[in-house]
Amino acid sequence: MEATSCPRCGSKAAVPIVYGLPGERLMARLAAGEVRLGGCGVGPRDPEWHCKACGNDWRVSGPGYPRRRPL
Ligand SMILES: [Zn+2]
């Protein structure tokens, strides 16, 4: 996973937002605060990153960006 900085505050404390049901490894990363759980539904406008410094949510890819379907 490529490191991303927040477009609003520039903090490096950005974590990817994951959608769908988390597995065991993902649950561990959630507990460690390395990722943020976005929920079961995902749409083309849902954010992909979350800033832990300022709470900003954003996405880096436009609509139609190829992505795996959630479970
Ligand atoms: Zn921020």
What does this structure look like?
There is one protein chain. With 71 residues, the protein is an alpha+beta fold. It has a domain at 12-43. Helix content is 11%, strand content 21%. It has one helix and four strands; from the N terminus they run βαβββ. A four-stranded mixed sheet has the order 2-1-3-4, with no helix packed on it. It is flat and about 30 Å long. The relative contact order is 0.28. The mean pLDDT is 81. The protein binds zinc ion. Residues 6, 8-9, 11, 51, 53-54, 56 line the site of zinc ion.
Name the structural class. alpha+beta
Radius of gyration: 12 Å
Low-confidence stretches: none
Q: Give the % helix.
A: 10-25%
**What value does the average pLDDT take?**
81
Spatial order of strands in the largest sheet: 2-1-3-4
The number of helical elements comes to: 1
Work out the number of β strands: 4
The outline comes out as flat
Instruction: Calculate the terminal CA-CA distance, rounded to whole Å.
Output: 20 Å
Largest sheet: 4 strands, mixed
Characterize this entry briefly.
This protein is α+β, with helices and mostly antiparallel strands and 71 residues long. It is built from one helix and four strands.
List its salient traits.
single chain; 71 residues; alpha+beta; 4-stranded mixed beta sheet; 11% helix; binds zinc ion
List the SSEs and their pairings.
Blueprint: E1 14-19, H1 24-31, E2 36-39, E3 49-51, E4 57-58
Parallel strand pairs: 1-2
Antiparallel strand pairs: 1-3, 3-4
